Structure formats: C-alpha cells, structure tokens
Amino acid sequence: MLGRPTILFPLALLALLALLTLWIERSVQPPEKKMDGSTRHDPDYILNNFTTTRTDINGNLKYVLSAAEMKHYPDDDTTELQKPHFTQFSVEKPYTQIESDRGFVSSNGENIQFLGNVKVVRQAFKDRGEMTVTTTYLNVVPDKEIATTDRPVVIHQAPETVINANGMVYNKKMKTLELQSRVKAHYVNPAKTKPAAAKPAPAKKAPARSASKPDSKAKTTAKPNNQAGQAAKPANNSTRIRRTYEPASP
Known about the structure:
This protein has a domain of 145 residues: lipopolysaccharide transport protein A fold (Sandwich), CATH 2.60.450. It has 250 residues and is mainly beta. The longest helix is centred in the N-terminal third of the chain and has 26 residues. It starts with a helix and ends in a 64-residue tail after the last strand. The radius of gyration is 51 Å and the shape is elongated. Strand 8 and strand 9 form a beta hairpin. Helices cover 10% and strands 41% of the residues. It has a six-stranded antiparallel β-barrel with strand order 2-3-6-7-5-4.
C-alpha cells in the first residue's frame, strides 16, 4: 500500500511536464494561415481617374487628392495610387501642389507617401517667389501641414536660389524649412536680378529735302530769245519765207 503512491507521483509529474511542453510548443508556433484568401494582399476594388476632396469645419477647401488609378487592400486597409496629384489649400496662404509616380495612403488617411520623381511646387505669394522641391520620397501629414523626407532634396527658390540637402522637414503652418545634413546653397540677391529699365528709343527725324532738287510744280520752260540773232524756227513745215526786192535807183 505504501509503494503505490510512491509510483503514481512521478507518473503524474511526468504527465504534467508533457502537457506543459505541449502548451509551450503551441504558444510559440505562428498561427496557421487561413486558406480563404483573407490574408492575401489583393485589392478588393480599383478606381480609375478618381478625385477626393476634404474641407475644414468651416467648409473651406482643405485639399484635393487625385490619381490615375487607386487600389485598396483590405488586409492592411491601405490605398495605393498611380500618378497621384495632391493640392493643399490654406486660408491667406499660397497653395502647394505635389505629384509623383506612385503613392500610398495609410489606413486612417493621416499620412500620404509619395514615391518616384516627387515634385513639390509652392506658388508665389506676396514678396516670395515660387519654390520647387524635387526628391525621390516624401511623407505628408495633411492635417498638420508637414512634409518630411530623409532622401536628398533639391530646392529652387525664385529667382535663382538653389539649395541641396540630405533630408528636409517643411512645416507650412509654422512657415519653417529645416534641412538635415550636407546643406549646400547658392543664393542670388533678387535686387541684382531685376532687369534694368529700358531706355526710350530716339525719335526718328524726317529726312531733309535737298535744296538743289527742283520742285516739279515750279518747273518752267525757257523760251528762245530771237533778239540774240538766232532765226526763229518755223511753226510747221507749210510755212513759207518771202523776200521783197526793190528796184535800183536810175
């Protein structure tokens, strides 16, 4: 009787260890993939030439996003764009346009990523010239009006300022532009690029009339002078000349 509990206890302990090992093994194993297609990264719908707009609480236009093609993926609720074109508006501020080859919109719509031949154009405003930014990647947060990139950027500021840098943080609300590293700038004073005022062309003088040239209206024809001993020419071929002979004195 005393030997039976002694044998059962080690057996129960071994069974408990086996169950614990099986539970640990199941816990560390990745979940089995479902074969119903719900985990595949396939679009559930596709739109061509789509445009979406958003306004603020006062009804003012905030931004317009358009693309040649849009694909929505249900597994991560993301949206892929082809040839996206984004225009952001602000009250009493210049509007900004962004375009690229491809783009992605996050599930909550807070982030828009632009990839490939990214071009940003901020329109001229008051005394500021147009600004153009080119890069290969740009992340935009429309509600905060912030655009960031960790890739090389080239900035052209009208009229002739050029800036190169690796990385940029542009805050449109704060009107700040932060360049990360390897900054190189070429600045030209706008006052020196203004074209000089054109001088008025000299007035053309009328050509002087030559004094030696006779006036056609004052042209006269000289008459021959018979008193100079020259015989007068007959008026026509039928005119005859008669001579008178007087007899000689006796």
